[in-house]
Amino acid sequence: MPTTFFAVLATRGDSRALRLLQHAGAVAFAMVLTSAAAQISIPLPFTPVPFTFQPMVVLVCGAALGSRLGCSAQVLYLAAGILGAPVFAASPLLPQGAARLIGPTGGYLMAYPLAAFAAGWLAERRFDRRYITSVLAMVCGLALVFAGGVGWLAFGHGLGMRAALAVGLYPFIAADLVKLLVAAGVMPTLWRLLGRIA
Which segments within 12-160 are labelled E, that is strand? Predict the structure, then answer.
């Protein structure tokens, strides 16, 4: 029985080619959404990490697609960025291309596949059907994003944990929790509209 929103919507049948086409289209669509969210970027003067809506898009897409497809979408996003597509957040200081992954925001970006996988894995266990459990799934995914980002700043860039928290977590946590509380309502609302809550 399908357990993710995408699996319920996808046309089922014996055609392997159709299934592959649907999966590829869903992964590509999630990658485009992640890229679009990156373009809504607000640089902050006290940190090299810009404010974006990407983490919430990553988590919602992961929940909608499930663990494997959600993770695949973010791997595709990173691959497009590495190859030079302008998919990363615009920044006067941070380069596009592969160098972005070794820059100060690289840890956040590299955590996206894992965060999407976690949100999708929990959605496959019906965490996306109710608001409270959806919040829990989003919190788990967001924690992975921050762990990757802060860890990379602390150890990959030698800031140390205190400074990494000061520039990579504290300025964002309140706003990201508000965004998370909004984003957590997306999947339960879609399930209600679909009339498939069980």
Answer: 41-42, 51-52
